[in-house]
Amino acid sequence: MALAINIRADNGSAREIERLWDHVAAFEAEPSMRALGYRPHLTFAIYDAPEIDEKTAWGAMRAAVADEAQLRIEFKRLRWFEGSPFVLWAEPISNAALTRIHSSISAAIDPAHCRPHYRPGTWTPHCTLGMHIADERRNDAIAFAQAFDRSIEVMFDVVDCVAFPPVRIVAERRLAQ
Question: Domain range holding 159?
């Protein structure tokens, strides 16, 4: 089991990301994002339990967002992580609040306990659109990402700590407007 601390969109502004999930699902053998039963989100850190427990992870997140309000995040570009599995994602426009929250979490919990891709210096803020792009659809997925020419704004209004798999919300808090 693993723990993740996230910010998610629990409102109508998330529909555009969910529409992208549906488009990207065509590049997967089975749709990955809708299958999670979880809303569009950005993950700040992932820890493997029992090394870091729920109370510690949630405490770090609560402290990191103590003075934060809901975040309006803009996405103008789709990108991908190479490898197997091949992952397609939406790139948020640079946002000081995201960086501040991530830095606060990393200061509260030794980053050595965090999965490598979420550590300072390697963390890439992203909103996943498809986690399991089929090898034979990889080029189609890249073409789709490169052709994306829109701007999407999403209001991220809830922070949480989840255990997975499967996704189970351990704790959550709605951010002030």
Answer: 2-174
